[in-house]
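BUG-609 | component: ligand-complex export | severity: low

The export step for 5-amino-5-deoxy-1-O-phosphono-D-mannitol jobs runs without errors, but we want the raw record kept on the ticket for reference. Input record follows.
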Amino acid sequence: MCGIIGYIGNRQATPILIGGLRKLEYRGYDSAGVSVWNETEGNSRVVRCRGKLAGLEEKLKAEPAVGTVGIGHTRWATHGRPSDQNSHPHKAGPISVIHNGIIENHLALRQELAGAGAKFSSETDTEIFAHLVEHALIAGAPDLTTAVRRSLQKVRGSFAFVVMSDKEPGTLVAAKNSSPLVIGLGDGENYVASDVTAILAETRKVIFIDEGEMVTVTRSGVAITDFEGNPKTREPKMITWSSVQAEKGGFKHYMLKEIHEQPRAVADTLVGRVDLENDDVSLDGLELDVANIKRIIFIACGTSYHASMVGEFLVEAMARIPVEVDLASEFRYRDPILGPGDLVVAVSQSGETLDTMEAIREAKKKGAKVLAISNVLESSIPRLADYAFYTHAGPEIGVASTKAFTTQLVAMALLAIHLGRRTGKLTKERARELLADLVALPSKMRDVVEGSAQIQAIARRYGAANGCLFLGRGAQYPIALEGALKLKEISYIHAEGYAAGEMKHGPIALIDEHLPVVVIAPRGPSYEKTISNLAEVRARQGKIIAIATRGDNDIGGHSDDVIIVPDTALELSPILTVLPLQLLSYYVADFKGTDIDQPRNLAKSVTVE
Ligand code: M6R
């Protein structure tokens, strides 16, 4: 989704802004722009372009933006179609503004401002903020910071703004409410960004801005206040992971690289958590009040929701605590019944998904404790929660989540074992077996991802299909949903995930000789039933791709293709069975030639409702 970068210093701003925006490309966008203050002209030049950054760079060659202060933005359209005119930055008089998020009361504000003489040149909600700041200055605000503060009193919604004024070119003013904002500190120069990756090539010393805070950034320093102007102090943090970790490393796409990184990501997520001596799991010292947890409610979106569904299966099986799973985007709209005995587990790779954040706020308001599971240190969701537990997948750049998902599944298993040991429902012996299987997972995962040639051949055969069905039972049902989501996201082929037992209640009508059906059928208690479903598909000439356990010599007789995964504990098998599905989607999309890392219309982190 939208990306923000700002620079103030003594170097040319444009290359720094473009470099930062390039690092944010993975978030998904449809247009880009910069505004750079030109000292000689005493004015800022805005250059904007619909489409990819390369288009903006071409435009900048023809009309260079020269100067040492500037702001840049990649836009993912919400209000107003993607166009040059609707791209950010937006200008009103001397004011340039970039914005992530949505101004909810933009229609009323637009009318009010138009009544006061404002002329609008775009369809966006963002332009309203530029006019508000200009009007605040005309109405007597003594400086840019005060004008922004007064304007913030008028807007409702989620936002991160960065504002620049031609009249006060030594200052950038930024504000945050529900959209991420980080300040990068340099020597005689400073940065503002929506994501630390945008500035990592320039500095590792950063300050994360909290909800309801604004910040005035000059070449020599930063001053943070709340929206009322009360000063706030914050120690800078050093970022330890390198920008190289977020590069392609010889793979054709980030997604393929990230699929191959999964054994390492899972191993890193296990480090320091598995206590083989005591057959237990440590959740980094978190002190959950397990004895008083009456119910667990997972809330999440998209792939994280599928991980949560596996979490339900694991926690109920191992800890015998009742579990519910809710879509974060639905949760707060049905006035959920919650109380102090509830532990809400909010799962979010990015830690920035707005729906999940709002669901957490609802849960906290109603007295529940919240545990966040996230992959991004210091992101908004873990900071909002009472407890945070991190996956260690490393930066995930491909929009389609892969290594973040498998590490979330590992986090679910760790949580379930931890709870199971404390509720007394998981025996020491079973915990020992599960932990041994967990530790053995990375090398088994390596076996699957390195055997991708077979999957590539299957993908070539089914690349022209118009649709695809994914079936699974128990903990494989969420994997069927995840397989279908992956295929849809990157290949644009319509796909459905179904609980295998539900097939005969509707989707069986879809089956004919043209429909590939992926059946996830590892050995386990529901194996026989799944094989019956497979036979039902076969009887209707559907094409079957089975995901089965090593040593299963029967399933080949019922399937067109069999992809084998190593054996492991039933509870952990989703971590292996999802791998062929990720690879299948990847290779189908690759044959189709779609934009795999930045699929159309999608964004990496969804920071609007
Ligand atoms: O960052 P989050 O885990 O909160 O993101 C949730 C979804 O937006 C995300 O999983 C989305 O479904 C991915 N594109 C899936 O590949």
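Assignee comment: Attached the raw record above. The domain at 453-592 is CATH 3.40.50.10490 (Rossmann fold).
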